[in-house]
Amino acid sequence: MYRVTVYERVEEIPSEQWNSLARGADFTLTTPMLALIQRSRPKMARFFMVWDATMTPRGAVPIYLLHESTTVSAYQRPDLMLRRVAGPEFECFVPGAKAILPAVSIGSHQVTSARVLIDRSIPVEEQQACISLLLSQIEEQARSWGACSICCPYVAGDDAVLRTVLLEHDYFSFPNVWLAVLDICWSSFSDYLQSLSGKRRHSIRRERLQIARAGVELSIAPLQLADVARLEILKGNVDAKYHGESARRPPSENSFLAVAARERPGEPLVVLARKEGEIVAFCLCYRYRDELYCEQVGFDYERTARLPLYFEVGYYQPITYAIEQKLKRIHYGAEAYKAKLWRGCHLELQTAFMKCFDLTTHQQLAACAAMLDEQRLS
To answer: Is the domain of 105 the same as that of 189?
Structure first.
C-alpha cells in the first residue's frame, strides 16, 4: 500500500509535497531549511518520503550520519547526549564513542521540537504503518553506512504515534533536552509586562531605560548580506566566550548566516542593536507561518559590557514583533532556562530514542537509560 523513495540531495526532493506535511513547529524540516543546513553544515544525509497508492505523500524525514570528528553537539550526538544526561553518577555505564559511532540521527539537525513529518489526517494505524516503514528503510540505510546506532533525538511528549512505533522497533528512551517556548497571548508589550510580577516588570523597564539612555538604536528587519560580515564577528565572540577561542569560525560564504542571507529560507529577520551607527548586538530569527524561531545571537562585548542587550535583542524585541504580527508562539531553544522562565516561557521536554545494532551495547545503554529521568536535565 505504501512505498518509500530515498533522495540523496535536498535539490532532488519534491518540495511542494514534502513541505505539505510540515506543521508550524516543523520549520527546520522544510526543504529551504534543510538546504541551508546542508550547505552550511554539510553531513552525509538521505531524505526519505513515503507515498500511498495514489502517490500522495504521507510521511517524510531526513537522516544524517554522525561521526566523532564532524559532530560535537552534546544535544545531537548520542554518546555525548547520554554522558551529558548521565552525569558523573552514571557516566561509567556509557561506553566509549567507538561503541556508538558512527550513528544515524533521525529528524532535524537543529536542536528543535521538529519530528518525523506525517500526514495527521489519515487514521492513527496508517500513520503508524508509514512511520514503521520509514524506520525499517532507515535501519537498512544505517547498516549500509556501517553505523553502530540510530537515534531520534527530539521526540515531543505529545507525539504518541511516533513514540509508540519507536518502542515497537525496540528503541529505548531517555530525556534529552528541555526546549523553551513562549505562547503569545497579549495585545501589546505593556500587556505582556502586566502578565509578569511587579518586581519583574520594574526590572525590565529599568533595563530598557538603561539601553535607551546609552543611545542604542534598535530595529528588526530582513537579514541583509551586507551585514553578515559584522554579524559573523559578533557571533564568533559568543562562540569564543562559551567554547574557547578555537570555536570562533573564520568568515565564509557558506556560513549559516551567509547562506541564510543569500537564499532566505522562510523569512529570516534580524534584531539589530546599533551604537554610534555600528552593530553591537543581534538576534537572528525565522518566521514560519504564525511562529517565530530565535536562532543565533552575537555581541560586541567590549562596547556593551554593562548593557543588558542580551534580553533586549533576544526577548523584548522578538516579543514586540510577535505581538504586532499576531504570531502565536516563539521558540527559544535550549539552555538559560531560568532567564526564559523568568520572562514567561514554559519548557517542553524532548526525549531521545536510541537503538544499537550490537546487542550487548544496546542492553547496557538501555539499562543506563532506565535510570535517567528529566530531573537530571539542568
So the answer is: no
- Based on C-alpha coordinates, what's the Rg of the chain? 21
Torsion of CA 179, 111, 371, 359, to 10 degrees: 160
Q: Are residues 49 and 72 in the same domain?
A: yes
CA 47 to chain centre: 18
Sequence-distant (6+) residues with CB within 8 A of 315 are 343
CA 184 from chain centre, in angstroms, equals 20
Residues 207-257: pLDDT tens digits?
A: 999 999 999 999 999 999 999 999 999 999 998 888 788 778 877 787 888
Which letter, b or e, does each residue of 105-120 get, where b requires 16 or more Cβ atoms within 10 Å of its Cβ? bbbbbbbbbbbbbbbe
91 in any annotated domain: yes
Cell of 270: 534580524
Angle subtended at Cα 166 by Cα 164 and Cα 167, rounded to the nearest 5 degrees = 65
CATH number of the domain at 368, please.
3.40.630.30
Q: 112 and 206: one domain? A: no
C-alpha torsion angle, residues 123, 126, 127, 130 (rounded to 10): -160
Return d(Cα 4, Cα 137) in angstroms, integer: 8
What is the C-alpha to C-alpha distance for residues 268 and 102, in angstroms, rounded to an integer?
33
Q: Check whether residue 215 and residue 171 sit in a common domain.
A: no
Q: How many residues does the chain have?
A: 378
Are 117 and 258 within one domain? no
**Full residue range of the structural domain in which residue 288 is found:** 185-327
Q: Which of 74, 157, 108 is nearest to 374 (CA)?
A: 157
Q: How many helices (H) and strands (E) does the chain have?
A: 14, 13
Q: What one-character DSSP code corresponds to residue 262?
A: H
- Report which secondary-structure segment, H or E, holds 290: none
DSSP assignment of 41-78 equals S--EEEEEEEE-TT--EEEEEEEEEE-TTT---TTTSH
Query: Could you report the per-residue pLDDT of 279-334, keeping only the tens digit for each?
Result: 999 999 999 889 999 989 999 999 988 899 999 999 999 999 999 999 999 999 88
Give the three cell numbers for residue 121.
489526517
For 223-360, where are the E strands, in sequence order? 267-275, 278-288, 291-299, 329-333, 346-356
313 within 8 A of 297, measured Cβ to Cβ? yes
- Would you call the peptide bond into 102 cis, given omega within 30 degrees of 0 as the criterion? yes
Q: With H, G, I as helix, E, B as strand and everything else as coil, classify residue 149.
A: strand
